[in-house]
């Protein structure tokens, strides 16, 4: 499949969206990656990628509404990726309600893993290819501190503040 991409401006900087055409997906495109500038492990435009702004219009509209404080849950089709363990962790992230946080240990509990798996959960969260729309920013340290965000702790703090939470870096 041809990887499609676009970029959009946001309060986090220019977002890079990448995905594939999928029948039945909103806007006809399933999102494979959403990256911010300087993101650890973030996507970069690859050889053969095709810019298609229209393919991501529905995603861009939802992101705009989210950043405006008008949307609390995304309705976006995703390209399946990751190991079974990572997919379970990412599904747990999708279930964290807007404006709330969980600890890494609580995410481990949510997927039926022992709390001792919190480090593995953190690794899976760090590999999340869909920043913002898969809300890994809602996961915090056991002591309530902001920890581990591939897009940078300042962006994590901005996203939490947008959702009405104030946690220090």
From TrEMBL:
Annotated active site: 136
Reactions catalysed, as given in the entry: a 6-O-methyl-2'-deoxyguanosine in DNA + L-cysteinyl-[protein] = S-methyl-L-cysteinyl-[protein] + a 2'-deoxyguanosine in DNA; a 4-O-methyl-thymidine in DNA + L-cysteinyl-[protein] = a thymidine in DNA + S-methyl-L-cysteinyl-[protein]
Keywords: Cytoplasm, DNA damage, DNA repair, Methyltransferase, Transferase
One Pfam family this sequence matches: DNA_binding_1
Alphabetized HAMAP family for the sequence: OGT
Family named by the database record: Belongs to the MGMT family.
Miscellaneous information on this protein: This enzyme catalyzes only one turnover and therefore is not strictly catalytic. According to one definition, an enzyme is a biocatalyst that acts repeatedly and over many reaction cycles.
PANTHER family membership: METHYLATED-DNA--PROTEIN-CYSTEINE METHYLTRANSFERASE (PTHR10815:SF5)
Name the record gives this protein: Methylated-DNA--protein-cysteine methyltransferase
Originating species: Streptomyces luteosporeus
């Amino acid at each position: 499949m041809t990887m499609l991409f676009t970029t959009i401006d946001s309060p986090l900087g220019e977002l890079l969206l990448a995905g594939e055409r999928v029948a039945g997906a909103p806007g006809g495109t399933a999102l494979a990656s959403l990256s911010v500038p300087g993101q650890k492990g973030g996507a970069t435009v690859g050889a053969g990628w095709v810019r298609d702004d229209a393919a991501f219009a529905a995603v861009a509209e939802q992101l705009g509404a989210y950043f405006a404080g008008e949307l609390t849950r995304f309705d976006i089709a995703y390209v399946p990726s990751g190991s079974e363990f990572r997919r379970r962790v990412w599904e747990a992230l999708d279930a964290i309600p807007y404006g709330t946080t969980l600890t890494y240990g609580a995410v481990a509990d949510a997927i039926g893993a022992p709390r001792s798996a919190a480090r593995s959960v953190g690794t899976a969260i760090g590999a999340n290819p869909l920043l913002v729309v898969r809300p890994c920013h809602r996961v915090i340290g056991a002591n309530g501190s902001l920890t581990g965000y591939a897009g940078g702790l300042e962006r994590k703090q901005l996203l939490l503040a947008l959702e009405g939470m104030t946690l220090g870096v």
